[in-house]
Amino acid sequence: MHLEGSIHSIETCGTVDGPGIRYVIFFQGCPLRCQYCHNPDTWALNQGKTKTVEELITDIKKYKSYINFSRGGVTATGGEPLVQYQFVESLFKQCRKEGIHTALDTSGYIFNDKIKEVLEYTDLVLLDIKCMNPEQYKYITAVKLDPTIAFMNYLGEINKPVWVRYVLVPGLSDNPDHIHALGHYLSQFSNMERFELLPFHKMGEYKWEELGYDYKLKQTMEPTQQEIDAATAILESYKIDVN
What we know:
Elements: E1 4-14, E2 22-27, E3 49-52, H1 53-61, H2 64-70, E4 73-77, H3 85-97, E5 101-106, H4 113-119, E6 124-128, H5 134-141, H6 146-157, E7 162-168, H7 176-186, E8 192-199, H8 205-211, H9 225-236
Parallel strand pairs: 2-4, 4-5, 5-6, 6-7, 7-8
Antiparallel strand pairs: 1-2, 1-3
């Protein structure tokens, strides 16, 4: 029996989800309900196209020359790819056999021994930390922060390369105290290779309207350069190199 995954979409030449040119697979399914999500159409698990690992690997091989030349690879994102952890593990195993670099873009919310097995075949983790304050994290995402902290701590224990991503949303994730807490926490990790401060944007707002969801950030503006600089300064005070 061939393992099947529920796939939302594929970007064959992505350049923002890990190093180099990447084959980016957007998985269906996500347990988080982030207020600023720009892919709410990935939340439901059963609304994607069915693909097998073999189908994906066959397609990935078509781009292998671009991937190798740019030192890129394959990125599993979503949604939350670890909703389909068995499929991701099988895909990454095959990528390793092909000598293709793998990156996992995750919230870290799903974390257990099965996920540790997936990480054995993962070369790089792109970890989205939405906020370091537990109450605010739950307000933003509708889930608890604890699993993400356990996930990051484990990545530190096994020295797994990680890029941390933080979306700066005025009124949601721009509290200086919370950013200080994030900087203090991350400063202990020698395995963090990169920190990406991502300014909030409203490009996904139309999807919320199409799906009939209540978009609470209609009045929220994108952060100003001054607000971005203020957050950057706080993080750099903890010797974090902000990208």
